Every structure is written in structure tokens, then in C-alpha cells.
Amino acid sequence: MLDSRFAWRLALLGTPSLSSLTMPESRVSLERKTATLLAYLAMEGPTSRARLVELLWPETPAGAARNNLVHLLRRLRDAVGAELVEGGEVLSLHESVSVDARSELDPAEAPRAFAGGLLETVDLDDLPELSEWILAKREQIAVARARQYEAALARARASGDAAEAVSLAERWVDLDPLHEVAYRALMQAYYDLGDRPAALRAYHRCKAVLARELGTDPSPETHALARDIDRGTLGRVTSGRAGHGRGRLPLTVLRPPTLVGREDVWAKMEEAWANGLGIMLQGDPGSGKSRLAQDFLRSREGHQILLFQGRPGDVDVPYATHARNYRQTLEANPDLELPEWVVRELARMIPELGEAPPPMATEADKRRFYEAQYEVVRLVAERGPLIICTDDVQFMDEPSIEAGAYVGSRFWGDTNTLLRCLYCHRTNALPPYSAALLDSMYAAGVMVPIELPPLSDAAVSTLIGELDVASAVSAASEIARVTRGNVQFVLETVKNMVERGDGDVRPIAGPDEGVSAMIQERLTRLSQGALQAARAAAVLRREFSLELVAQTLGIGLLDTANAWEELEDAQVVSGEAFSHDLVLETVLSSMPASVRRVLHRSAARVLASAGAPPARVAAQYQEGEDARQAAPWLVKAAESALANLRFAEAHEAYTAAARTYAALGDAVGEASVRRALEALAKRVEQTAS
Predict the structure, then answer these.
(1) Bacterial transcriptional activator domain spans which residues (predicted)?
(2) β-pair partners for 423
């Protein structure tokens, strides 16, 4: 018998090996037939010598094959100094040998970190029967692991530990990236955690992997789960984690399950759609334009959808809006076959695509750039009916507006392409260029404006009834009076009631001031770390990540992630975006001036290091009141605008740089910029002639 003091551990997952439990450093590598013999005995139990010989040396004469087995066992004994395999005509693994792969087959075991597949590094192509046996065992282990994960996830959900469920589901997806059940578990776990955007990202990840690896779509069950998550109608297990001194907000308050009070507006949208017109939704901040547009898009079955969006801060950077939106379009259509010239032109605003052409010198160069953007949309539209929805038009930069108008005009009169457009903007918030463009489209009869009025008192009551907050239901009439039918104001009021826990509806002046005041009150309940993370994100404005937020604050990424979790719980952010642009604006407006200056300067340094567009860096330094740093970046912004034939933006940046140098008393810098302005004026004159 083998002395227990010399017990060994047999590793069959990944690279096979033996190691002593009392002397871990005594690791013994196993050649392939020794490893396969031990694996077979470990997984199948006692086996006759005749059967083992038949499996390991199928083409060798019986006598020689038996001798091979004897020599193999002797070499193993000499290597480890003990008899790990015992028996006469029937061989078995000694009972004291522990085997990592066995625990993988026990459904009661908790899932472990993946160490590799069974005999993953062993080549058995010349042993067909063993090769088939290995494949079957690997499949058996995969099924058992799935059951372990399902059981562990069920335990996590039952205990309300959504964070643990997310961790388990992420590990399961990493282990088996083609297993739809794992993706569904991940989607459910994120939803339980209150992170609906992450849940939907998990669905799109599943969809992309299945399309790329198997050429298939997710099953109806997975699609239905994604639809319920998107609508907020899925049952949810709330997390048992401690909060941050406030009531936990129901997910329904972030996105109410159904749209209410918009029947008349919906009918107008249907009429415009039936007449082949573009639709422009306009309304006050927080009136529900984005939600209405999203629900309308979902009702258009059989259509592809491209979601474009303007963001605060875009106006400072030429083509900022289109750079982001075309990048998203290419990511959503990874198999889109673009001509080489299109890729090169797009590289002007999406640098990761490769080397861009030389700076634009003529209007023909600009048209070619715009034509490349048209080509992308055309190729997507070739795949089926397409809807382009552009939200928050008021935040878009003028060059993107101009390019978008060019792309749209190329489709006018094209009866072979099914392209429809839907836009949203705040009432009376468009810059002059955008407003004039829309007026011309209204006059041409190709687009219809549709205004969103405040909700009626009855609609507010219906909305509140859907939010799953009992104290709000009893105060519905008072909430309707205070909020004056502004959807976001209603939601912020209910969030405040939940967090305060007192059921009080506090009267505030009106929607414009009221929403901001409600959000400000909620911000005061955040921890200092979470509030600073929100401030840094708000300063970064249009595009940020947790990494950029951490660098701006000068703190660790883990600390930032913990703060971000609190912000998501409070529905201040959703994923890597603010839950509503009104929240972003309130965070900015309520920030102390001294804090704001420091964060803007820090953000400028971070963005400069990250290779952000010069105009974005310059704007950060300007808002940080660091004129000495802002001036040279304004010059770089002007030069970048010139490279894209944006003469107006170049003139504006040069003029700002000249004023800044003058204020600094830098006569040399000012003179240099004045010369650049003179050269720009001559170039504009030459271009016009």
C-alpha cells in the first residue's frame, strides 16, 4: 500500500503532471501515454491490462504491447518513488491519489477557475479510440461545469447577491463563450444588479460571438430575455448589498416599463411615417423625447437601426459627433466590406482605421470625405430597410450637421434605398445653422416637426402607478401638480421620495429649476468619492471611461469602480454614461468653481496624453482658466480645422488664441497667430474665387 505521507495529486486539466501533496515542489511532468493511462484509470476506474494495452498500442503485437505497459509503469514508479497504479490483471489508481478532473464532474462542487481542458496539451490523433474517449469526457466535463454554474448562480440569486451572480456568470461566459445559457445568466445577473445597459451589452456580445463563430443568431429565448430587459418588464432579484445611506431605487424608476400619455404624439408619428416623411421630435428637457423615439423604433419590425447622438461638448470639436457615431456603426457591422478609399477618408476622423489622406486642400477633397460617409450608410442600407435616429441634435457640432445633410441629400430621390430618419432636439435650443437647415427641410416638405407637450394629470398618475413605489402612488396628484407633467421631473421626484424615505413631495418652482433642484438634492446623499467621480465624468463630458475618470481624479481604478457602483445604484449614471443629460448638466452647474477649475485642468492633461482632438483639450484648459496652456492648444485646434477645410472653426480658434496671447502679454505669440489669421483670410478669398 502507498504510505499516505507520500500522497500525490494528479493534474489532468491543462498540461498533465503529478505533484506531491507534502512536497509541492516535487512536480513530475508526464509523457503523453503515461498521462493518458492515468487519466483513463482516474475517470473510468479499474481497467484490465488487456483493455489498456488495446487502447494505448492498438497496432502493436500483444506481447510487445504488454511489455510496453510494464515498462511504462516501471518508469512511472521510478519517477515518483511509489506505486501509484496498483493491481495485477486489473489496474487501478491508488485511492490516495487526488485528481483535479474528478471534482469537475461533481454537480455539488462550486465551480472553480478554469485550469484547462482534459489532457489539453496531449496529442492522441494516432490513437483514434482514445481520441474519441477524450472528446466525450471533455463534453461530459463541460456539461457538469454548466450544472455547477447553474447551481451556484441559483444560490447567489436566492441570497440576493447580484454581484456574486455577475462574477459567476462572467466566468462561465469566459469558460464557454458559445454557451447561450451562460449569456442569459449574465444578462439576468446584470439586470438584478440594476445595470440594464450592461445586461444589454451582454446580449449584443452573445449575438456578435454567435454570428462570428457559428453564423447563427441567438435563440428566441435569449432574444425574448433581451427584449424584456430592454423594456424593464423582467422580474428582478434585488441585491442584498448594503447601500450608501438611502433607499434602493427600483429599476422601473430609471426606465418605466411602458410609455404613457403619448397616444396623440404617436398617432402623428405614424401619420408622418405613412407619408414617407422624416420625423423631428422636439420638446422641453426631460419631456421624454428619447424614450418615445426608442419605443417607436422598436415598433418598426424588419428595419435596421443606426442610433446617432449628439453629446455635450461635441460643439467644440469638428466632426466629434460623426466620429463617434460612424465608429459605432462600423463596430455594429464588423463584416461591412468598405472600399480602401472609404477607409482612408474615414481615418480623418477615426484615426484607428489607419493612415489618413493629406489635409484637405479643396472643396473636392471635402466632398470626397462626405462621400465616404454616404458610402458607409449606403452599404448598410443595402442589407435591408434602415432607420437613422439622431438624438440630441442640439449638441451636435456644425461640421457633423453639414456632413449629415450631405449624406441625407444623396438619398433624396433614391427609390432603391429604403432609408428613413428620426431626430430629437430640445425646443428652442438649436444653434442657428442647425435651425436654418431644419427650417429648409420643413419648407421642402420632407420632414415634419412634432412637439411633445407636458403629460396630463391622468397620465402622470398612470406613470406613477407603473413605478412600483407605494408612497408615490398615494401622492400622485400632488406630484402631478408640482412637476407640471414633465416626465423627468416626475421620475426625479419619485427617486427623491425613495431615497429620503419620508414620502414627502416638496414643492419646487417649476420643471426647469425643479428637475435640477431635485437632482442636486439627490447628489448631496452621495459619498464624497462617488460625487467626485460624477464631477470628473461631467467635466470630461461627451466621452469618458472609468479609466479616464480615474486618471482625472488621480486615484486608483478600483476606487473609481467602487464609486461608480454607487452612482449606478443611485441612477446618476448608467454604464459609462449619465442616466440623463439633465443629470450631467446639474452636476456641472452645482460644482464649486475651484473644484471645477482643478478638474478641467486635470482632464486637459489626461486627454492630451490620450491623443484627444486639440479642440477638446483647448476647451478643457479654457474652462480650467489656464490661459497659458490653452493658447497653444487653440492654435493646434485651428490647424486641425484647416486640415479639414473648416475655415470658420479655424478662424474662431485662431481669434481665441490671439485674444489669449494678448491677455497674457505674449506679443510674440499674438503676432504669430495674427499672421496665421491673415494667411487664412487669403486662403478663404482664393477658395471663394
Answers:
(1) 99-230
(2) 280, 390
Beta strands in 74-182 (DSSP E): 85-86, 90-93, 98-99
pLDDT in the model for residue 6: 52
Instruction: Report the distance separating Cα 581 and Cα 177, nearest Å.
Output: 35
Give the strand order in the sheet containing 47-48: 47-48, 90-93, 85-86
Instruction: Find where cell 483535479 sits.
Output: 100
pLDDT in tens, 71-94: 999 998 888 888 889 888 899 998
Distance, C-alpha 658 to centroid of its chain: 41
Q: Rounded distance, CA 288 to CA 332, Å?
A: 26
Question: So what's the pLDDT on residue 281?
Answer: 95
Q: Which residues contact 673 (CB under 8 A, 6 or more apart)?
A: 635, 654, 657, 658, 661
* Confidence (pLDDT) at 236: 54
The CATH architecture one would assign to domain 263-451 is 3-Layer(aba) Sandwich (3.40)
Question: What pLDDT is stored for residue 509 in this prediction?
Answer: 43
> What CATH number is given for 4-130 in this structure?
1.10.10.10
Count CA atoms closer than 13 A to 65's CA, side-chain side. Answer: 14
- Give φ, ψ of 307 to 5 degrees: -100, 110
pLDDT for 102 equals 79
From CA 471, how far away is CA 474, in angstroms rounded? 6
Q: What is the CATH number of domain 160-236?
A: 1.25.40.10
Q: For 444, phi and psi rounded to 5 degrees?
A: -80, -10
Place of cell 482632438: 613
Determine contact, residues 66/53, Cβ cutoff 8 Å.
yes
Closest C-alpha among 683, 614, 600, 609 to residue 653: 614
Residues of the chain with pLDDT under 70: 1-6, 21-25, 107-108, 110, 112-115, 232-255, 257, 500-515, 689
Strand partners, 283: 426
Amino acid at site 66: R
What is the structure's pLDDT at 242?
Answer: 35
- Looking at residue 503, its pLDDT comes to 56
Location of each CATH 1.25.40.10 domain in the chain: 160-236
The three-state secondary structure class of 301 is coil
